[in-house]
Amino acid sequence: MDPSKVHIPPMKDLTIANITANTVLINSQGPSPRLTYVLERLVSHLHDFARDTRLSTAEWRAGIDFLTAVGQTCTPVRQEFILLSDILGLSLLVDSIDHPKPPGSTEGSVLGPFHSHEAEAMQHGDAVSHDPQGEPCLVVCSVRDVHGAPVAGVTVDVWETDSTGHYDVQYAEREGPDGRCVLRSDERGAFWFRAIKPVPYPIPHDGPVGQLLMKLHRHPYRPAHMHFMFEKEGWDHLITALYLRGDPYETSDAVFGVKQSLVVDLQPADEETAARYGVAKGSLVLKHDFVLVTSEAARELRDERSKEALAALGRKVRLLDGLPVPDVD
């Protein structure tokens, strides 16, 4: 950009006392009110963090080196930055703010770093996992609205680990996707597939995020779970997971994903279920009803909660497309 065409307010002799205001000022020249607001809050919080902690140059350098290492660890199949966001609780916080859930609807959980767009479209009853060591588990679910009516035609993305706790993308020699699929709910809102019993596993801890967990004396384990993602026009996007009750890490998930409403029990297949779905009597069955919220209802709830939260903070802002921006007279 040609500097002669940009108005830059004069700035020099910047100090601890005036650097924040001047940085905010120079970042407020762009046409996007949302970017202006985000940068104003980001800079203010970053500068206050440095002041509150009396951040040293050595610590600043260590932080830069850490974030550099996080970026260098990322690959097309491993997102170390998402992992960092997960273990800091940021992923869950952002999802909870952006996708608020009214009572009776299914709560969200974390996406995690191993979602893939390689999943194959499958038919109801197909086998998601081809791991011969995994314990077979029939998954029978439905998708409904908050009034109990079925929601047909929902794209349902499912993924889980193998019996050793590894996702398919963690194997360099893999031949294709496994342990994941894409289905569509039928006219009754139902979908079902054959999987394996989820197992607990550690998140990747051989990189910078794992080193941070070690310094914090935190374990890297996630409780046994299965991921689900729901998408249909007119309905609020839902990323969630189901967690097995009684797992040793149920109350200490490394990425804060467990919510009581998402904890489920596996039941043995009775005669009727076994005959209907073609599985052995007594084999494991996971049954769950997912409840979606319309995009309009989610938007209204998000706006309502945003106004309440921002008013409590004393922010002079307005909402633009559901997001706060400076309220300039």
Would you write up a description of this structure?
The protein has helices at 19-26, 33-53, 57-73, 80-87, 90-98, 208-215, 271-277, 295-313, and strands spanning 136-144, 155-159, 180-184, 190-196, 201-202, 221-222, 225-231, 238-244, 263-264, 267-268, 284-291, 317-320, 323-326. It contains 8 helices and 13 strands. Helix 1 packs antiparallel against helix 2. Strands 3-2-7-8-9 form a 5-stranded mixed sheet, with no helix packed on it. By secondary structure, the chain is α+β, with helices and mostly antiparallel strands. It starts with 18 loop residues before the first helix and ends with a strand. The chain is globular, with a radius of gyration of 24 Å.
Describe the secondary structure blueprint for this structure:
Elements: H1 19-26, H2 33-53, H3 57-73, H4 80-87, H5 90-98, E1 136-144, E2 155-159, E3 180-184, E4 190-196, E5 201-202, H6 208-215, E6 221-222, E7 225-231, E8 238-244, E9 263-264, E10 267-268, H7 271-277, E11 284-291, H8 295-313, E12 317-320, E13 323-326
Output the keywords.
8 helices, 329 residues, alpha+beta
Query: Share of helix among residues?
Result: 25-40%
Specify the overall morphology. globular
Beta-strand portion reads 15-25%
Query: Ends: how far apart?
Result: 29 Å
Radius of gyration: 24 Å
Q: How many strands in all?
A: 13
Spell the H/E element sequence. HHHHHEEEEEHEEEEEHEHEE
The number of helical elements comes to: 8
Helix/strand structural class: alpha+beta
Question: Could you tell me the mean pLDDT?
Answer: 94
Outline the biggest β-sheet. Answer: 5 strands, mixed
Q: Biggest sheet: strands side by side, in what order?
A: 3-2-7-8-9
Low-confidence stretches: none
